[in-house]
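Please, is this right?
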Amino acid sequence: MLKNWLKIAFINYRKNWLSTIINVLGLSVGLCVFLLIYIHWQDEKSYEQWVPNNEDIYFVENKSAAFGVMSSSSYPEIFVSKEKFSEIEDATIYNDWGKEKLSFGGNSAYVTGSASVDSFFRLFPFEKVSGNFQGALSDNGKVALSEKTARLLFGDDYLNAVGKSIKNDSKSIEYVVTAIYKLPESNTVFQPDFIYKNPYLEQSKDQWTSFSYNGFFRLKPGTDVKALENKLSTLMQQQDVISAKKWGYDVDKKNPPLVYLTSIRKMKLDAKSEGINKGDKKSILILLTLSALILLLSGINLINLKTAQASQRAKEVGVRKVVGSSKSKLVLQFLLETFLICLVAYVIAFAMVELFLPSYNKFLNKEIKLNNLSLFIYTGLLLLVFSLFSGLIPALYLSNFKPINTLKGNFARSRQGVWLRNSILTLQLIISSFFIICSLIIHTQVKFMMNKDLGFKGDQAIQINFKKMNWENNFNVKKYKWLKSEVSRISGVTDVTGSVNSIGNGSANASIAKKLTDTTKTVQTMLGGIDENFLRFYDVKFLSGRDLDWKKTSDTISGAVVNETFAGKLGYNPKTALDKEFFTGWDGKKKYKILGVVKDINYAGVEQQVMPIVYFNYDRNWVKNNMNNIQIKLSKDDINGTLERIKEFWLTKAEPGYPYEFQFVDKQFAKTFEKFQKQQTLFTILNIVVLVIALLGLFALSSLLIEQKLKDVAIKKTLGADERTIVWDLTKRFLIICVIAVLISIPFGYYAMNEWLMDFSYRIDMPIWPYVLSMISLLILTFVVVSFKAYRATKINLVKYLKYE
């Protein structure tokens, strides 16, 4: 019996070779897209699975009225809470402090370091290679190295590195190696090449509102996490009142401090703040949903083409029922035929995934591998479910044929058959229209962001960040001044400046400012420590007032230029803000006077609201040691030559032995668009895939249906109908279905895009033209696809179709 079923299946595959190829191709592409995004989703969910007892370890996040939800905590919040609340079994902090240069003898390594405390290895037990984790970070002179770093510094003798001294050239500090560890091979956000004790803990012990550390708790099993969050929030609210009295600001009772605990198993995707290397859960879920729609579209193609072929197999079903075949056997036979198509598509899809995965990894900047056994198990189950879903409707449909009708040949024109095909075709076109609408609106929003006035001109300007830094003895500011003096002498350099917050990198420092006449009026603001020529360097436009004058003592001590958002937050417009005074949270109770108001500059990306910012003399207070970059404007006459001369100076005099890295400021800012440009690219690709699958299915379906009407065409031609009339009669039904499908898709597209646009502080108004263009483009494509087959139908041999009439 099975052998006969297979023979019948392959005879039908060969007979309907075009629809078979379209089915296999559509399913392969749909499965490939779904698998790529599903693999990405599973990869993001797999972070920190290596940590023992990870169900009890939580990431600490804080919410404040001024700064919103933050990924950072204060030192006393973490360690005082540990002593105060019995539910907390252990605690640690962890900060990634960027790349630094380590050396031993003649060997050196430029690697990423992290600051922590001795409890780190108790919560995150890396595999120990050598030494002892207990006491490994007990004082500032100790360091633990990764196996990779130890090999770079000590070569083949790295296992004997414990007890030896290495030098941190970036900070001119020596460490004793206490342990060597191996980084996890599985996914993790913790990838430090070396770990040392955070050197600023002593001065942070009483600073409850200095949110500078990533904190983690290990809770006792069975802890009520929500109840502990409430206790921690109450503690932080008490400390907020104490800090308010100390610093002279008013507590915002409507927005009290809150503490959130996020399981590290979910931290990568579900952190409420920006987290630690947080993934974009919303985008992944959107893409996963869209890829599922593509898979559904592939299944719809299969269902539609199978039901369209019903008239060809109606007599086969009728004969088999007459000779005694049961309905259940017919259903199983048709399900087997569908399963074989799906199985071939499944194998081809995995081959396509293997082919496209390297490019997809490069696009995502990840290293996803196709080596997870559970992936094959889950997708195998998906194959069975999908085969059942896409095969059951045609199977039941075909098996329900009545022998008396099928043997008389009446089925092809039944209302039931026409209604089912039209309904499925409508659903197919609804999905296609939805993708077109969404793709056009996403493209419009991204274009809007890229063309928005950013408030500065960053062309021909580069930024170089210092590699060698030290906060002691004002090293950073001294280095900045020396670099500025030296770089200014290089031929082709037209201007040099610097700032604490660099364009494209968001806020490096933020604090609170208060209105002098109403201390309840507080503003969260960026600390805009800048060099004297910074605003002129970027051609920032003044709305009122003037720039800071370094020759005037009052300007350098208490003068400030603010952006229009800052002025608005204090209740002023650009003109009324001039000469107004305000208190700052970074200079004690010192007063600043507004000398000028400038246009807003986007520092973090145009999808986010512009933050208030106060520009002042960088050399006035502690902020000066956050001047860790230099910004250089190049002459347009010899950009490449100037870049080479700067590189030579940097590698030979500025920072010999360190990698030379620079970034054009406009490109640095353009990186803030990358996430949305990638969304645009992916959506465009998905849109093309959807249209190709839908149009191929439409072509195959129209071919089958028009073939069933060739006798009608022959009769109409005999009666004198012209080709145009016949083509229109054959295509108008498809065009009506297309219009209905677009109209149904519009509310779904509007809702989805309205939700997507809510993520942007600066966004377009919902346009009408994408909905109109979606209808026009689908009508044109449908007409072109169907009319091609319809026109060919007008060229048939009349004798062939009328000789039996």
